[in-house]
Amino acid sequence: MSVWKSETMPIRTQADIVHVRQAVRTWSVDAGMRLVDQTKIVTAASELARNTLEYGGGGELLLEALSESVRVGLRLTFTDHGPGIPDLELALKDGWTSGGGMGMGLSGSKRLSNEFEIESQVGVGTTVRITRWK
Amino acid sequence: MTTPAGGSRITEVLNVQENELLQEWIAEQRQSGAARPDLIAAADLQDQGREFLGLLRQAVQSGEFSNINIPAWSGVRDLLTELSRTRARLGFAPSEVATFVFSFKQPLFAALQKAHAGAPDGFISDIWTVTQMLDKLGLLTTEAYLKSREEIIARHQEEMMELSTPVVQLWQGIVALPIIGTLDSARTQIVMENLLQAIVDTGSEIAIIDITGVPTVDTLVSQHLLKTVAAARLMGAECIISGIRPQIAQTIVHLGVELNDVITKATLASAFALALQKRGMTVAKVSQIKS
User: Fewer CB within 10 Å: C terminus or N terminus of chain A?
Assistant: First the structure.
């Protein structure tokens, strides 16, 4: 698997979430994804970027275009240095939220991507990595 | 009072050689390409230069060269701020605006060199004083330029906010809210208020929220929509959400958001047809109506 393009974007304000959505959409179009797949990864990116901002206190997104033999895909890595998630199992449960949201963002973005990884350490921060293949 | 060793000649040079300095300075601006004859008339450029030199001469009478924030410098500061704002609006690049000040270095340095001929001690310290002074004034123009740009951007954002949320009445008792763009918190609040107000004003029983123009429907957008629907329901109006395109439908399903309690339609047309039906009306061809 090789990364042929990458970019880092800050997630510090509400406007940055809009920029993230726009960038992910552009990259997914460039990767030749179908409209449904574009919408899915853009929506997942929107959820995770908002989590990074609201629960992680801001952070950044690493956007990577991947290619592996014949398939291409996008990998998004969201990193924050916020309070971390004490109970990952609970956080991934549908409908559970520590804030005022619906509690579907994290679990929903897992369902919207092909690969999903999450690492979190209390007091250190959280990293969420998703990949969607064309 | 700043009196560098060897005697400062800055004030003297500015007083005596004003005209020569102005002509050389303007030539310098033209040569550097920052004069932008396409945007500003030669006469205006001359006037601005003369005004700046006049105010600069007054300012240096204070003897203060390094602190441009004192009242004696307010005339120069105001002129440069206004000039940067005007030029920002005219379409000057920030470097071109700053060059207005920086291009003055060359003629002033040359004049100082002549004035100090035979006595090089004071020359270096004068150059240093003038460099610091002009650098500060140059940075001031850049700050003013950016500030006026930011004001323009902030105004556009506010205008967008107002523009983007019109509620339209489709028929008696039916209002529609076509939403275009992102549904982030600040705007959603306005959208919601507008719709609820329109429901009251028109006495409508059915409100159609059309999200054809919303590119991404995530959990926050869904939550906002559900809250708007709930609020409208409390006021006795029923909501129909239209413009759910195939890719949005599939994404919502994967996301796990449930819109079960809400009536949704793929297009605004089908939502309108349903709204008419609920009001006991229909749209028919004239030929089909029996007289």
Answer: N
Contacts of A46 in chain B (CB under 8 A): 216, 218, 220
**Which residues are CB-neighbours of B34 under 8 A, at least 6 positions away?**
B95, B96, B99, B100, B103
A94 touches chain B (CB under 8 A): yes
Which amino acid is it at B277?
A: Q
Q: Which of residues 5-34 of A touch B (CB under 8 A)?
A: 14, 17-18, 21, 25
Per domain, the residue ranges of chain B are 10-161, 168-282
Residue B43 has, within 13 A of its CA and on its CB side, a CA count of 0
Average pLDDT for B56-69: 87
Q: HSE (CB half, 13 Å, CA atoms) of B246?
A: 4
Candidates B192, B186, B152, B217; CA nearest to A14 is B186
pTM for the full predicted model? 0.70
Spatial separation of the C-alpha atoms in residues B174 and A85, rounded to whole Å: 46
Q: What is the pLDDT of residue B78?
A: 93
* Chain B residues close to A105, C-beta within 8 Å: 218-219
Cα B199 from Cα B231, distance rounded (Å): 11
pLDDT at B3 over 50: no
Q: Which CATH number fits domain B10-161: 1.10.4160, 1.10.150, 1.10.490, 3.90.1150?
A: 1.10.490
Residues with Cβ within 8 Å of residue B244, at least 6 apart in sequence: B211, B252, B264, B265, B266
Higher pLDDT, A23 or B89: A23
- pLDDT (tens digit per residue) in B146-160: 998 888 888 887 777
pLDDT tens-digit readout, B93-147 = 989 999 999 999 999 999 998 888 877 778 888 899 999 999 999 999 999 999 9
Query: Which option is the CATH number for B168-282: 3.20.20.70, 3.90.1010.10, 3.10.100.10, 3.30.750.24?
Result: 3.30.750.24
**Sorting pLDDT into bands at 50, 70 and 90, what band is A63?**
very high
